[in-house]
Amino acid sequence: MTARVAPAASPLLAGFEYRQMDVDGVMVNHAIAGSGPPLLLLHGYPENHLMWRHVAPVLAEDHTVVLADLRGYGDSGKPAPDAAGLVYSKRSMAGDQAGLMRRLGFAQFGLIAHDRGARVAHRLVLDQPGAVTRLAVLDIVPTRHVMANVTRAMATAYYHWFFLATPNGVPEHMIAADPGFWVRSLIGPLLGPGASIEPPVMDDYIRCFADPRTIAGSCADYRAAASTDLVDDEEAFAAGQMIECPVLALWGTQAFVGRGYEPVSVWQQYATDVRGTALPTGHFLPEEAPGLVTAALRDFLG
């Protein structure tokens, strides 16, 4: 185990202490603030921990908040992908985050996650039973359900799922040609009407995707979702494995999850205790309606 202060704390998240920790050979970039019961917050694609910039400081008033970059994203380690898809499986990515929390001294913790981070979180609670006290998942339903119910509407809204999983380096080559265009063109249509992301934050998301290793790792993440992750999910479902801790599902009414699914009903097939709330946003709930998200989370966390 190796821990060190990160070389540069972000001015976009004042009050958080930045560190990097080696977790079984993968350096996990994270920021910590607050005191009280621990909370781990995980981001989605194509972003990093800064997506929590409006929510995390409020939660840190009564919790120890840990913001972490996923493997392959942000300023965390970016191991080379493997042909079998195991390096960027949700099981491997979840292992990083569970290991980080153990090394920080937190045997149990609350977990709040959006998009890809929520898929990592789903695997984490299955692989580490008892570690997570409460789980909040933002704007997703389980990967297994999504892939078993592919429709024209889903494929249109989530075209990047299939593009990023394309083999032979195709998406890597195309994204690397203009990372800024890619990040903006993906985020923009997923925001609700009138919503935007501050230019310095968008610039930081693009900074990370200017690294070819981020592009490679994130593509491997999506390839794993269409292969090894599905194998793991099917095995868990067939064995009757359920999420045992309380689950809060939040989703945007203007996003595909709100239009295409009944999120609470879907999650009830995977968890024993589920509640949910729709918010008037697009896909990026914590950036579009941070006050509503924070209020819902604080009510859930107690």
Q: Could you give a short description of this structure?
A:
The chain is of the alpha/beta class. 43% of the residues lie in helices and 18% in strands. The chain has a 9-stranded mixed β-sheet, sandwiched between helices.
Distance between the termini: 33 Å
- For the record, what is the CATH homologous superfamily label? Alpha/Beta hydrolase fold, catalytic domain
| Tally of DSSP β-strands | 9
Please give the count of helices: 15
Q: Give the domain tally.
A: 1
Question: Which fold does the CATH topology refer to?
Answer: Rossmann fold
Reading off the top of the CATH hierarchy, the class is best stated as Alpha Beta
Structural class: alpha/beta
Detail the poorly predicted runs: none
CATH architecture: 3-Layer(aba) Sandwich
Strand content: 15-25%
The biggest beta sheet is recorded as: 9 strands, mixed
> Shape, please?
globular
Give the strand order, joined by hyphens, for the main sheet: 1-2-3-5-4-6-7-8-9
Mean pLDDT: 96
Output the radius of gyration: 17 Å
Helix-strand pattern, N to C? EEEEHEHEHEHHHHHHHHEHHEHH
Helicity range of the residues? 40-55%
What does this structure look like?
By secondary structure, this protein is α/β, with parallel strands linked by helices. The protein has a single domain, classed as Rossmann fold (3-Layer(aba) Sandwich). It is 43% helix and 18% strand. It has helices spanning 56-59, 90-103, 116-127, 143-148, 152-157, 159-164, 170-177, 179-190, 199-209, 212-225, 228-238, 256-260, 263-267, 285-288, 290-301, and strands at 2-5, 17-23, 26-34, 38-42, 64-68, 109-114, 132-138, 247-252, 274-279. The chain has a nine-stranded mixed β-sheet with strand order 1-2-3-5-4-6-7-8-9, sandwiched between helices. Helix 2 packs across helix 3 (116-127), helix 7 runs antiparallel to helix 10 (212-225) and helix 8 (179-190) packs across helix 9. It is globular, with a radius of gyration of 17 Å.
